[in-house]
Task: structure prediction
Amino acid sequence: MAMAWSRFKKKKNMPGGLWEKCEGCGAMIFRKDFSALKLCPDCGHHFSIGARERIELTVDESSFNELWADVSTVDRLDFVGYAEKIDRTVGKCGNNEAVLTGRAAVHGYSVAFGVMDFAFLGGSMGVAVGEKICRLAELALAEGLPLVIFCASGGARMHEGALSLMQMAKTCGALQRFHEASGFYISVLTNPTTGGVTASFASVADVILAEPGALIGFAGPRVIKETLKQDLPKGFQRSEFLLEKGQVDRIVPRGELRNEIGKLLAYATGGDPVAVGAVAEDAADREAE
Result:
């Protein structure tokens, strides 16, 4: 006996966006089961999060003071549709560029803090992003602050042509001056960190951390495979592969990044990393209760 067609019809009153498919294990996750960390409850896959979510997870409460929010994109090349795309993206993301920068504190340690937002045109680096990164490095140099930058990018912004490529040298120059003054820089590579960002400021830190499973590289694996005409090693360009090859110093799960950064800041500034660990344990105990 044939089953009633009505049983297969889409239910009109079912709201959308209730489920998310995990890219790691393929499981369907009910959105309410997501923790604030946005991790798959089955396999621990790290989903992308926005810049402001990242700030809330990482810095001390209410410590982030945004700087240079007025630095935004100018369509110098009159690239077709670029200005309209920027306007739509600003309305969607709530940021006026692909990086947020400012002062903050992590476990009481003052830092110059930057975080990229992949949702803003793939976290691509144009003139405005390069300018904000440079200003952040100059702030850290002038005030003697450690520098922390979370990276998430598809690379240089094609809409700005050679002007975007110039930001690679510009940001590295600012960071070189910071290094020469013995500044301490932590770079955190998240999924994905590729292209001109990987080939510039993301890879010149004193300590390079990465989230598990993050795609990190210059050209993407598909492009490399098609160019070389051969299969790539398993896990190629993932953070675990780069850790094995020495390009990443440590892989840190998202829920542990705040404390890991706090300990590194303590080591670098003559503080007490053990105290950071004790604070973290107390917080974990309170959550368990």
Summary: DSSP finds nine helices and nine strands in the chain. Confidence is low (pLDDT under 50) at residues 1-11.
